[in-house]
Amino acid sequence: MKRLLIALGRLVSGLGLVASLLSAAPPASAETPQQRDACHGKGSATPEMRIAGCTAFITSGGHDDADIAEAFNLRGAAHADREEWDNALSDYTTAVQLVPTVAILVYNRGLAYLHKQDFDHAIADFDQAIKFDPSLASAYNNRGIAYRNKGDYAAAIVNYDQAIKLNPASVSSFNNRGTAYYRKREFDAAIADFDEAIRLNPKYVQAWNNRALAYFDKQDYARSIASFDASLKLDPDIPLALYGRGLARQNSSDRKGGDADIAAAKALDPDVVKDFAAVIAK
After folding, report:
1. Range 167-177 burial, b when 16+ CB lie within 10 A, else e
2. Cα separation of 224 and 102, whole Å?
3. DSSP state string for 175-213
4. Cβ proximity of 246 and 230 under 8 Å
5. What is the rounded CA–CA span in Å between residue 16 and residue 196?
6. Spatial separation of the C-alpha atoms in residues 29 and 6, rounded to whole Å
7. Domains of the chain
8. Taking the model in full, what pTM does it have?
9. Which runs of consecutive H residues, i.e. helices, occur in the chain?
10. How far apart are CA 245 and CA 69, in angstroms?
């Protein structure tokens, strides 16, 4: 529902990024090949099937620490897909305890902390992941998100800079850096980043919304309306975008059109006025 700024909606990019730690040939053990395949998410395995398959692997015996760590990591990812963050965190922690120096394991635990809004622990895990693999762009991006949600926009921007340096095609990193600039009221820098996110992915709704908001704060209502139009063409049922466009229209002397947008936004979300006030730059 609250999709105007990515910081207030989906906190994380890269969720489900897991790496295989194992060779292809499994050892002899009690679990079935079907359970191993389910644990790895092969075929049409649901999260529930993945959890059951990984549990069978973990409890079967006959595996070394790296094998078991991967199974805990994969089971944690399945719990994450179900938004069961405590279970995901528990599995990722066990994986890290078994194999402490694998970047992706620590990184995935950082994602779980991030979703639980435990930003200090998330930052600590992303620090470790970067230490083990300095090329892991998503760790910089998500560490930036953690800093941004702590209100440390300067530190967030430093991390987004590094994420973009490592992956110049990262739409989320440009969008996220734009939100940090936006919070610093550096609207031109924010718009430049949203422009690049849109250039990389013209269907990225959050960037259209965020650019509209930045133009709104610059009192450039024509460009704000144009960006909201593009966003709503992609997804017509975003209450915050409708409400923002309504305000921009009212400020452009289109009272009738603005009133219609605001009424439509309130019909979708009765709390839209409060929500918009929460995302607008202070």
Report:
1. beebbbbbbbb
2. 45
3. HHHHHHHHHTT-HHHHHHHHHHHHHH-TT-HHHHHHHHH
4. no
5. 25
6. 44
7. 32-133 (1.25.40.10), 135-201 (1.25.40.10), 219-282 (1.25.40)
8. 0.87
9. 33-39, 47-60, 65-81, 85-98, 103-115, 119-132, 137-149, 153-166, 171-183, 187-200, 205-217, 221-234, 239-251, 255-268, 272-279
10. 49
3-state secondary structure of 22: coil
pLDDT tens digit sequence for 179-237: 999 999 999 999 999 999 999 999 999 999 999 999 999 999 999 999 999 999 999 99
Q: Which two tokens stand for residue 278?
A: 């929460």
Handedness of CA 136, 112, 14, 64 (dihedral sign): positive
Residue 120: which residues within 8 A CB-CB, separation 6 or more?
A: 150
Supply φ then ψ for residue 22, to 5 degrees: -115, 160
Contacts of 274 (CB under 8 A, 6+ apart): none
Quick check: 104 and 14 in contact, CB under 8 A?
Answer: no
Q: Rounded CA gap, 50 and 94, in Å? A: 17
